[in-house]
Structure formats: structure tokens, C-alpha cells
Specification:
Layout lengths: L5 E3 L2 E3 L6 E6 L4 E7 L3 H18 L4 H17 L1 H12 L3 H18 L2 H4 L4 E6 L2 E9 L2 E5 L7 H12 L3 E5 L6 H12 L7 E3 L4 H9 L3 E7 L2 H13 L3 E5 L4 E5 L5 H13 L9 E7 L6 H9 L19 H16 L3 E4 L18 E4 L6 H4 L6 E7 L2 H10 L2 E2 L2 E4 L3 H10 L5 E3 L15 E2 L2 E2 L6 H7 L1 E9 L17
Parallel strand pairs: 7-8, 7-10, 8-9, 10-11, 12-13, 12-18, 13-16, 15-16, 18-19
Antiparallel strand pairs: 1-2, 3-4, 5-6, 6-22, 11-21, 14-15, 17-20
Helix pairs in contact: 2-4, 2-7, 3-4, 3-7, 4-6, 10-11
Bound molecules: nicotinamide-adenine-dinucleotide.
Length: 496
């Protein structure tokens, strides 16, 4: 059985632990690898190696750091399919979706290649007589990242390339449910010429995360995962005087106005609701149909019923299994709750299986209508292939529902009215808004800007905000004397 290695000080090493977590194929729950729970000593080695590497890496010219990212981008593209196969084997994602997961990460590396221009400071000449002020962007030190199971390529790539391009070093604790994908990313990073110790990877769960939140050598913590864990990590990291950015759960609404293009709406809602088995933080889990648009709900359910889950290499499969038997039981429990609390189940995927893979974590596409905000299926993040439809009378009512929801990751509106779109865009309290675009994930020259319970912190992932998160600004006020020193001592606050 393959034991997933750790990456410490440039070496891929087998852990000396006796404690392992099974990594399984979600299509049949067979164990495919074992993730070690790194020992205290290994955690110490990983952090110490990152600390030592920072002393040299921070002095490597920014252009050379960018070139590592250029080679890394080329290697990731060359190996995109190999990474996607590993990713599909441990997440169950379809091959195309797995390639998309890798691709969205490659785009962040492309952004990290631009680091020289993104690290430009500011300058003003002659702020006072003979005095110039300018600022430099400098790296912070050792940074840490803790990532979830649902994007095992994209989300680690949101973090370490940007942090390392800025001159920092990094300790990554990936999800214990699919740790082989990030190890492949790390192999390619080393091949791209990253020096030993710049990226370190430890595995495990809560016990391995804790030292990353408390060790004073770590300056910034990035986390992506569920709300309770995100809150814990934000509180602990900031209580230990670290910077923290914690991306958490979501409940994304799509508002469908009656003047929208019906074909466009229905096609887009199919993929954005049940694609990736609904295990995307930007998946549409609530469709709010306004006025006459409510008549489209049965046809939407009919179209979603045509999506069939299947194996990663089945070209006809719309999506794969959910990640674990526990995740499946959670989603089935919520579907049952939806029925018990009075929502109308138009399409029920509770009983779905794939012949020959009866042990897998399959859930068929599921659609509810008549959902109201007091129902459990509305309040909880389901993270499964389940779409809740509700009907409302007006855009104002829709805005009120969306704004009362505690999450604020993503939302979309479908309409042909510029005025409705603008009203929604301006007033909705959600950080990423799509107009006739169902899942508005920003490309990496922008930032990934969730709000409310979907994000704790202030500076977001990738784009300019990531540069600020992973750096310090140093502002220099300088006087080079052109003539004799004028005057005598100055006892006031003025520098003139
Ligand atoms: P999770 O919170 O269970 O785990 C995330 C990471 O935290 C893992 O590495 C895990 O080992 C670690 N962890 C788990 N329990 C911990 C604890 N008690 N203390 C410290 N660390 C702990 O999340 P998941 O199930 O892997 O991922 C799904 C969740 O991630 C969903 O809620 C989804 O919405 C969210 N997510 C959010 C975004 C976003 O951008 N907002 C993106 C992707 C996923």
C-alpha cells in the first residue's frame, strides 16, 4: 500500500509515524493509499526547514523567483492529464472536471509569474526639500496553508505559488482525503527548480494543523474548508498574532427573472447545481425563480434528471461520487429532512447506484421545489448534488432572502434587464456576483472575494490582495545631501 510521503527540506520522506489515515477511491471505497499523521518531530522539521530556507530565498532576485514559476507553469501544463488522473482517482471527479481543477490552479501560477510587477512599491520624489519617499514590498517569512478535499490541485495552487513568488517559504497541510494530488504538484515544483525547504508538506488532521496556528515562526495562515474549522483557525491564528485568511462554507443563490433567456438559464443551472456532485464552494444550491419564471421549475428538474453520475473515465458521466460514506450519509440525511419538512422532492437521487460499484458514495441528482428559508435544506450547506428551488414575487423579495442568508460566497442573476441586473449587483451582500453567468469565479488577476460566513479575514486569495497578504510594506524616507547641511537641530515634528 502506497504511503504518501512528507516533503521536508527538499526530500520526499516516509513518515516515522504509526498513525495513518486511509485514502480511498470514492467510487468503491477501496483503500488506495495511506496518509501519515506527521509526528511532532516531523512538524518541527518542516517548520524549521521553511524558516532556514527563508534566509536565502528572500534574497533570490524577484526575476529568478518568477522564472521558477514560469518553469512550474510549463511543467504543470505538460503534466495536466497525469495530475488529473491522480486527482480523479482520489476524488472521483470526472476526467474533464479533474483537468479543470488543475487548470484553474495553473492560472494562478501564471499570475505568480507576474510577481516582479505586482511587487512594485510606490515612490514620490521631493516630499519635502531634498527628501524622497518610496516603498518596497518585502516577504513576510514562513507561511502556512490548510486545504480542503474538494479542489486538491486548485486550492493548494491558490496559496503556495503566490506566497513563494513573493519570497516567502511555505508549509502546506493538504486534505487527508486526497493528499496524493498535492504531492504530485510538489514533485513538479521541485523539478521546476524550487530550492530545498521553500515548500514543505505535512499530512494529517487537527493535530498537525494546531502547530501551524500557534508556532511563532509562522507569520500567516491561509485556510479553505468548512465554517466551524474556519472559525477555529481564524480565532487561533489571530490570537497567536498571525495574519489569517479563512475561506469557509457557502450557500449560493441564483436569481432567475422572468425576462431571462430560458434556454440559457436551464442549461446553466444543470451544470452549476449538480456538477462535481455539488461539492464546489461556488455551486448553485438555491435557485430563486421570480414571478412567471416559477413555471420553469419542472422543466429544470426534467433536464437535471438526465445527468448521470459515473466513474471518472466514463465519458457519459455528468459527475462522480461524493467524497466519503460520511459525506453521503450527511447528504442523504438532509434530503430526508427536506421531505419531512414539507419541500416537494421533484427528483430524488437518494437511491442511486452505479452497477458494479454499489459500495461507492453515489447520490443521484436531486431537486426540491417549494423550499422556504426556515427549512434545514435551505439553512445548511448540503455539499451534494441537491438543488433547492424557491418561488418569489419580485426582485426585492429575492434580494431580501439572499441578503438574510449568513453566507456570501457567490450568487448570480439571470435577466435581460440592465436595470434589474444593476440593482442586484449593487445591493446584494455577496462577494462574487454573476450576471447571466452562473458560477462567477474570478480569474486570478482579480481576487477570490467571498463575504460574510464564507470568509474570515480581509485580504483574499490570489490577485493583488494575495501579494498584500503575503508581504510587508516598507516605506523609506531618504535625504541625500546635495549641498551643505542647512540650519541647526530641528525640534519639531516637521521634516522640512
Ligand atoms: P474541512 O473543514 O473538514 O477540512 C479542511 C481542512 O481542515 C483539512 O485539511 C482538514 O484536515 C482540516 N481540519 C479538519 N478539522 C479540523 C480541526 N478541527 N482543526 C484544524 N483543522 C481541521 O473541509 P472539507 O470537508 O475538506 O471541505 C469542504 C468545505 O470547504 C465546504 O464547507 C466548502 O464550502 C469549503 N470550501 C470553501 C471554499 C471557499 O473558497 N469559500 C472553497 C472550497 C471549499
Amino acid at each position: 500500500m502506497h504511503k504518501v510521503p512528507l516533503l521536508i527540506n527538499g526530500e520526499f520522506v516516509e513518515s516515522s509515524t504509526s498513525s495513518y489515515i486511509d485514502v480511498t477511491n470514492p467510487a468503491n471505497n477501496e483503500v488506495i493509499a495511506k496518509a501519515p499523521c506527521a509526528t511532532e518531530q516531523e512538524m518541527e522539521q518542516a517548520i524549521a526547514s521553511a524558516e532556514a530556507a527563508f534566509e536565502t530565498w528572500k534574497n533570490v532576485p524577484v526575476t529568478e523567483r518568477a522564472r521558477v514559476m514560469m518553469r512550474y507553469q510549463a511543467l504543470l501544463k505538460e503534466h495536466q492529464e497525469d495530475i488529473a488522473k491522480i486527482l480523479a482517482s482520489e476524488t472521483g471527479k470526472t476526467f474533464d472536471d479533474a483537468k479543470g481543477d488543475v487548470w484553474r490552479g495553473i492560472e494562478v501560477v501564471e499570475q505568480a509569474m507576474n510577481v516582479p510587477s505586482m511587487m512594485m512599491g510606490e515612490t514620490v520624489e521631493n516630499v519635502a526639500r531634498g527628501i524622497d519617499t518610496y516603498s518596497y514590498i518585502q516577504p513576510l517569512g514562513v507561511c502556512a496553508g490548510i486545504t480542503p478535499f474538494n479542489f486538491p490541485a486548485m486550492i493548494p495552487l491558490w496559496m503556495f505559488p503566490m506566497a513563494i513568488a513573493c519570497g516567502n517559504t511555505f508549509v502546506l497541510k493538504p486534505s487527508e482525503q486526497d493528499p496524493q494530488t498535492p504531492m504530485k504538484l510538489a514533485e513538479l515544483f521541485m523539478e521546476a527548480g524550487a530550492p530545498a525547504g521553500v515548500l514543505n508538506i505535512v499530512h494529517g488532521g487537527k493535530d498537525q494543523v494546531e502547530p501551524l496556528l500557534t508556532d511563532p515562526r509562522i507569520k500567516a495562515v491561509s485556510f479553505v474548508g468548512s465554517v466551524p474549522v474556519g472559525q477555529h483557525i481564524y480565532r487561533t491564528a489571530t490570537a497567536n498574532m498571525k495574519r489569517a485568511q479563512c475561506f469557509a462554507g457557502a450557500k449560493n443563490h441564483s436569481v432567475i427573472m422572468p425576462d431571462a433567456n430560458k434556454e440559457h438559464v436551464l442549461n446553466n443551472l444543470v451544470g452549476s447545481s449538480v456538477g462535481a456532485a455539488g461539492q464546489r464552494c461556488m455551486a448553485i444550491s438555491v435557485a430563486v425563480f421570480v414571478g412567471e419564471a416559477q413555471k420553469w421549475i419542472p422543466e429544470l428538474a426534467e433536464r437535471i434528471s438526465k445527468v448521470k453520475p459515473g466513474l471518472w473515465d466514463d465519458k457519459d458521466a455528468g459527475y462522480g461520487p461524493v467524497i466519503s460514506p460520511q459525506a453521503k450519509q450527511r447528504v442523504l440525511g438532509l434530503i430526508q429532512k427536506g421531505k419531512d419538512e414539507g419541500a416537494e422532492c421533484l427528483l430524488d437521487g437518494s437511491d442511486f447506484t452505479v452497477p458494479g460499484y454499489e459500495n461507492g458514495n453515489w447520490i443521484g441528482p436531486t431537486v426540491f421545489s417549494g423550499v422556504t428559508p426556515d427549512m434545514t435544506i435551505y439553512k445548511e450547506e448540503i455539499f451534494g448534488p441537491v438543488l433547492s428551488c424557491m418561488g418569489l414575487d419580485s426582485l426585492e423579495d429575492a434580494l431580501e432572502v439572499v441578503n438574510n442568508n449568513p453566507y456570501g460566497n457567490g450568487t448570480s442573476i439571470f435577466t435581460n434587464s440592465g436595470s434589474a441586473a444593476r440593482k442586484y449587483q449593487r445591493n446584494v451582500e455577496v462577494g462574487q456576483v454573476g450576471i447571466n453567468v452562473p458560477i462567477p469565479v474570478p480569474l486570478p488577476f482579480f481576487s477570490f472575494t467571498g463575504w460574510k460566513n464564507s470568509f474570515y479575514g480581509d485580504l483574499h486569495a490570489y490577485g493583488k490582495q494575495a501579494i498584500r497578504f503575503y508581504s510587508e510594506t516598507k516605506t523609506i524616507t531618504s535625504r541625500w545631501l546635495e549641498d551643505d547641511i542647512p540650519g541647526g537641530p530641528n525640534l519639531t515634528i516637521s521634516i522640512d
